[in-house]
Each structure stands twice: as C-alpha cells, then as structure tokens.
Amino acid sequence: MLMLRRPVDPDWASRVTRRLDELLVDHAHLERKAATTAIHLEKYRELYPQVHVLNRIAIEELQHFEQVLSILEKHGWSFGQPQRSEWITGMMRGVRQGRRESAIDHLVVCALIEGRSCEKFQCLARHLADPEPALSNFYQSLVESEGNHYATYLIMAREIDLAETDARLDWFLDLDAELMAHRHDLCILH
Ligand SMILES: [Fe+2]
Ligand SMILES: [Fe+2]
C-alpha cells in the first residue's frame, strides 16, 4: 500500500515505549488533531462535495481519541501537554500557499501522516504483543482505519488533480525520508 522511502528504524518501538504514559498522551493528541484536521479540510472549496466523508473521518478519529483517553484512565495516567513533533512540523512546512495548491498538499501530508501512523501502529502491535497484549490488540485494531484514511485522503487529492498530486506525493516522500533520518529521544509517535 505505502511507498515510503525510508522504513521506521528497527529500534523505534523499543525507544518510544520506554515511557508508555508519554506515548499514550502524545497518541491522544494525535487523534484529537486528526479529528480537527478532517474538519479543517472542509474549508477548501474543492472538498465541499466530500463534507460527509470528512465528517465520518472526524467522528472515527474522535472515537480513537476517546479510546486512548480510556486506556490512559485505566492506567491512572492523566491527559497532559502535547509534545511538538519535528516530523509533523517539517511536513506541514512543505504545504504551498494558494487555495488549490494548499488543498492538494494538505491532503498529501494528511495521507502520509495516516500512512506513517498505520506503519507505526503495526510496529507497536508487534513489539507490545508479549508485555502488553491488550495494548498490542488496541494498536492492531487501529491499523485498518488509519490505512483507510491514508487511501481516502490520497484519492481526494487525486480527484482534484491526478498529475499534480503524484508530483507532490513524490516531493513529500523525499521530505518524509529526510525528516525520518533525524532521530530524537522523545516518546512520541511522530
Ligand atoms: Fe485515528
Ligand atoms: Fe486516521
């Protein structure tokens, strides 16, 4: 499905699960931002016909947000401050100005965030299978949904302009690979 040019580091899951409380707080914010982003995309004229699809994505992301909050509460961990992701900031910096350009780029970046989440949830499901089977099952349960969001956003961008979307996807895939090469020590998803 994904044509990522740099796979996640083999030790990534063991690094970010050192502090599961921090990782889950970050994940909660990621789902919250995914929900608001889906609604935010509805501002683009090109996406008016997609308003119901975007609302459905926002509702699914809110449900994921609620699920992560429940896991935090079950462990006695509180919802807290979000941490800044250099990868997401770097990807968003690549979004061009201009309504139509911005709509296409924003959809491509959203697709890649969903795609990377999909890849990383699979890593977490594998890594946590033995020590945290319930959490591992939870991550596995999200893989399909985030994979569908990846495909939906990419299709939406291609419906605006196929050739331009594929050219921008190529550009953002290089940027993603470059940003993924920068290691950090934070227990965050991206
Ligand atoms: Fe989600
Ligand atoms: Fe998603």
Question: Top keywords for this entry?
Answer:
Ferritin; mainly alpha; 190 residues; binds fe (ii) ion; 7 helices
Describe the structure.
It is built from seven helices and no strands. It is an all-alpha fold. α4 packs antiparallel against α7 and α6 (133-160) runs antiparallel to α7 (162-180). The longest helix has 30 residues, at 99-128.
Our Rg estimate from Cα atoms comes to 16 Å
Beta fraction = under 5%
Number of strands: 0
- Order of helices and strands, N to C? HHHHHHH
**For the record, what CATH class applies?**
Mainly Alpha
Topology:
Elements: H1 12-16, H2 20-40, H3 51-75, H4 86-93, H5 99-128, H6 133-160, H7 162-180
Helix pairs in contact: 2-3, 3-6, 4-7, 5-6, 5-7, 6-7
One fe (ii) ion binds at residues 31, 34, 61, 64, 146.
Q: What's a concise summary of this model?
A:
The chain is an all-alpha fold. It has helices at residues 12-16, 20-40, 51-75, 86-93, 99-128, 133-160, 162-180. It has one domain (12-180): Ferritin (Up-down Bundle).
